[in-house]
Amino acid sequence: MAGFTIRGVSKVYGGTPPTETLTNIDLTIEDGEFLSILGPSGCGKSTLLEILAGLQLPSSGEVFIGGKKLQGPGIERGVVFQDPSLYPWRTVSKNVELGLELRGTTKAGRRAAAQKYLDLVGLTGFENKYPHHLSGGMKQRAGLARALANSPEVLLMDEPFGAVDHLTRLQLQDDLLDIWEAEKKTVVFVTHDVSEAVFLGDRVVLLSPRPGRISRIFQVPQKRPRK
Ligand code: ADP
Ligand code: ADP
What is the ipTM, given to two decimal places? Predict the structure, then answer.
């Protein structure tokens, strides 16, 4: 597991005029916690998550992961976006195996990992289907399995359930908590949905409208009882 220390992070996107997006974010994310980042559209949530993923550099300030200065993306951080972007010409299982393939894991090892995580996300039986056979919720499940198969210590999730219907979303939220309890990962979850942030998070960081700054941090008193 790994946590983050974010110190004085600001982000200004270039352009005329420049877009001041995040201002002076100071935050510690604990090992193994489920942290929700909540705020109105455009306040810089995605930018903050991309900074944690190493996909964006802060304009000023520093980010540490597990005590080490964060430099670019890393295999210990899995990212799940709203659009799971599965390769349509690969089966579900082959999509999940992709990261392991790039790392040179043996075929048997890849197969075993894909099976384990497809089972975990509730896609048993869909291994050899192609993405177009899956519903929206199931594509998200496959995207989550793909991230988990690389055994990341941290899951960075950006509105992953934003494009699925409401009832499916509730089911996915519940299942995500089950997976988080089973896999003991640090999760940083970006959403603009208050009930989602509170249902999922141990803590909720509330960002102000752009430029995003931390306006409140809530400890969630009664998260869903552990099963
Ligand atoms: P949120 O996820 O909270 O909706 P974002 O981080 O996506 O917020 O965006 C915050 C602000 O930064 C927006 O005004 C957006 O237009 C701007 N922004 C985001 N990415 C870029 C970029 N690559 N270049 C310029 N401006 C950007
Ligand atoms: P959605 O409501 O978008 O289908 P879920 O991930 O909640 O998303 O799917 C619920 C269940 O419905 C799946 O686990 C699966 O058993 C079944 N299902 C959904 N779509 C299909 C499909 N295209 N083919 C077969 N079963 C499906």
Answer: 0.69
